[in-house]
């Protein structure tokens, strides 16, 4: 597993507190309770790395995890690699002021972060894409930022239903013109873990 050895670095309330903007970074975004933190734990094979919860709104900061450095070509120094767990958006019980703060910070992060190589967008396979998901897809497309969609909690559906949900989603992505890729995923089953790890590594090496 190329994502093994991930370590907690820090939790940031604003982007200025994040690790210095060098190396390569992949951010995990998605609606509150979609399963972002669980996906991070599954992909890094590190139970308890990112805090998860039944209660939406668990992750209230941008949380940075370091990965083993990426080996580059002859004569080039290894590249720092990180994963970032973003706060979930769309959770109504989080106070309006905090939601607004996160909207601005996530927006600034996506616009300004030079080490950001791509976004892993996490969505519940049982729910259609919501406004926030669409905004993220459109933003990534407009700024040429690669985006990979994990349709998670696939364990809640039959294999057939999951395949149908993926096909419908891919159709929608194609129709909307966004270049995002998508796969079925489950942190619980687990399902699609190798494919997702490969994609994260591809993004980091982009
Ligand atoms: P916030 O930090 O609040 O934005 O949520 P999050 O997106 O980080 O979600 P988290 O990983 O904390 O998971 C939310 C809930 O969904 C928890 O109860 C998890 O156990 C559950 N969950 C996450 N992934 C899966 C999955 O693949 N299958 C099932 N059945 N449950 C899952
Ligand atoms: Mg979380």
UniProtKB/TrEMBL annotation:
<comment type="similarity">
    <text>Belongs to the TRAFAC class TrmE-Era-EngA-EngB-Septin-like GTPase superfamily. EngB GTPase family.</text>
</comment>
<protein>
    <recommendedName>
        <fullName>Probable GTP-binding protein EngB</fullName>
    </recommendedName>
</protein>
<dbReference type="InterPro" id="IPR030393">
    <property type="entry name" value="G_ENGB_dom"/>
</dbReference>
<keyword id="KW-0460">Magnesium</keyword>
<dbReference type="InterPro" id="IPR006073">
    <property type="entry name" value="GTP-bd"/>
</dbReference>
<dbReference type="GO" id="GO:0000917">
    <property type="term" value="P:division septum assembly"/>
</dbReference>
<keyword id="KW-0547">Nucleotide-binding</keyword>
<dbReference type="InterPro" id="IPR019987">
    <property type="entry name" value="GTP-bd_ribosome_bio_YsxC"/>
</dbReference>
<keyword id="KW-0717">Septation</keyword>
<comment type="function">
    <text>Necessary for normal cell division and for the maintenance of normal septation.</text>
</comment>
<dbReference type="Pfam" id="PF01926">
    <property type="entry name" value="MMR_HSR1"/>
</dbReference>
<keyword id="KW-0342">GTP-binding</keyword>
<keyword id="KW-0132">Cell division</keyword>
<keyword id="KW-0479">Metal-binding</keyword>
<dbReference type="GO" id="GO:0005829">
    <property type="term" value="C:cytosol"/>
</dbReference>
<dbReference type="InterPro" id="IPR027417">
    <property type="entry name" value="P-loop_NTPase"/>
</dbReference>
<feature type="domain" description="EngB-type G">
    <location>
        <begin position="22"/>
        <end position="206"/>
    </location>
</feature>
<dbReference type="GO" id="GO:0046872">
    <property type="term" value="F:metal ion binding"/>
</dbReference>
<dbReference type="GO" id="GO:0005525">
    <property type="term" value="F:GTP binding"/>
</dbReference>
<keyword id="KW-0131">Cell cycle</keyword>
């Amino acid at each position: 597993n190329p994502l093994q050895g991930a370590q907690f670095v820090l939790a940031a309330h604003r982007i200025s507190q994040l690790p210095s903007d060098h190396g390569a970074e992949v951010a995990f975004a998605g609606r509150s309770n979609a399963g972002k933190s669980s996906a991070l734990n599954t992909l890094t094979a590190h139970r308890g790395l990112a805090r998860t919860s039944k209660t939406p709104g668990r992750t209230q900061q941008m949380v940075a995890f370091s990965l083993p450095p990426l080996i580059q070509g002859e004569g080039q120094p290894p590249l720092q690699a990180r994963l970032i767990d973003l706060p979930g958006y769309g959770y109504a019980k989080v106070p309006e002021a905090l939601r607004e703060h996160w909207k601005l910070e996530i927006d600034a992060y996506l616009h300004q972060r030079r080490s950001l190589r791509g976004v892993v967008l996490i969505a519940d396979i049982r729910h259609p894409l919501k406004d926030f998901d669409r905004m993220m897809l459109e933003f990534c497309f407009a700024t040429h930022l690669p985006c990979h969609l994990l349709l998670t909690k696939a364990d809640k559906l039959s294999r057939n239903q999951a395949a149908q949900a993926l096909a419908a989603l891919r159709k929608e992505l194609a129709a909307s013109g966004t270049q995002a890729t998508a796969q079925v995923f489950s942190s619980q089953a687990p399902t699609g873990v190798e494919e997702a790890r490969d994609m994260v590594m591809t993004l980091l090496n982009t």
